[in-house]
Amino acid sequence: MERDILTIIVLNFKTYKEATGEAALRLAQTCDDVAKEFSAEIAVAPQIVDIHPVAEVVDIPIYSQHVDGAGYGSFTGYVTAASIKAAGATGSLLNHSERRLKLADIGAGITACRGFDLKTIVCTNDVATTRAAAALKPDYVAVEPPELIGSGIPVSKADPEVVRGSVAAVKKIETGVGVLCGAGITHGEDLKAAVGLGSDGVLLASGIVKAKDQRKALEDLIGGLR
Ligand code: G3P
Hints:
Layout: E1 8-12, H1 22-38, E2 41-45, H2 51-57, E3 63-64, H3 81-87, E4 91-94, H4 103-115, E5 119-124, H5 127-134, E6 140-143, H6 155-158, H7 160-173, E7 178-182, H8 188-196, E8 201-204, H9 206-209, H10 214-222
Helix pairs in contact: 1-10, 5-7, 8-10
The protein binds SN-glycerol-3-phosphate (G3P).
């Protein structure tokens, strides 16, 4: 299955104070403005309780930071695909390095999301886990070496082989799966380098969320698309 994948930028709000509650709304609005002004594909991943208020004010795609495979019924403390869909999410991250899951749980989460027409981005930490994740046929895998997360050192420069290797591994298994990369991505040149390695986009957080001027940082980043 071949498909035409646009370069996407997914901004993970994590639990940063600068992207929680009211600040999440402001940052999501900034992303929405910049996406519209520059015709860029920007998606946001706010905390789960912020999905609904964010969905009220933006048109860009919204990813949950996590989802479980549980359905309706006797499950306590789970995040269901039904609930994130109802809140306004268009997809979910799964298996983020800061929220690891077992392979079977990733599979169940992907299946649950498919049932609600939600996109899935499965995070991986190396080529081998990328290969395993791609076999589950999510919409995207996002490879992020944990040691570079939050470091400001871009994976596209520090570890180009993990990106190239992930792209090659996914192509061999299922060409309909997109490949993102993340960790330390901040500037336009980091995004450009990621795309040059065959990546379909980036998953990032601190470079934008923690920036003094979030809009300016976002504009710098998307400069890498030109
Ligand atoms: O989910 C994105 C992430 O883990 C990378 O974080 O702060 O290095 O962009 P950061």
